[in-house]
Amino acid sequence: MNTVFHSNIQEGIRHYYDDLDFKNILDFVQEKFSCCGGDEYKDWNVNQYHSCNNSGPLACGVPYTCCIRKVPGEVVNTLCGYKTLEKERLELVDIIHVRGCIHAVGLWFKDNFEATFGIVLSLLVPQVIGLVMTWLYWQKLNEIYSKEDTVDFKRLEVRDFSFNAVDLTGAGWCWCLPREGGYVPINVVEDDDEDDGDTICQSKV
């Protein structure tokens, strides 16, 4: 697990100045947990600006968020980590935090197990409840569909009826029905007696 975290943090350090979100998060973690880098402070060597192969002002150094503040609220020199990657741990114990953030955060979680467990539980319980409710809802839908006891799940089909056999000439948007039977097939002989006063208009569907 630490290997996965280490590789991810190293990838973030590699793009430290390109990814503002990761930069802000890592700066906060390094200051909050008094740590530097992922596994150790030398992880900063993977960044092109902090690499010892670079010749810039940040070369072979670490960000100022790795530096130790001797006085609370002290304004830190942004170049306080200059050339620290060339030195060993014992030479830096009063200058920067040499412990990696993976170990620092892991120790904090162990020391605050109850709080950690509560946070994890508060995140997982709503997810589990949501999954259970979704499953129950899906089961209910399957039950309703299998019984077909609602119109919403029934297919209405027109059977044994051919519109081609009906004379709809001149109907337009309205079927004028001269008799209760409405329009009749073309070949059927109609009666001459029609009641003009009883004409009913039915809108097309």
UniProtKB/TrEMBL annotation:
GO terms for molecular function: enzyme binding. The chain crosses the membrane at residues 115-138. GO terms for cellular component: late endosome membrane; plasma membrane. Keywords: Cell membrane, Disulfide bond, Endosome, Glycoprotein, Membrane, Transmembrane, Transmembrane helix. It is a multi-pass membrane protein. It holds the Pfam family Tetraspanin. This is Tetraspanin-15. The gene is LOC102380198.
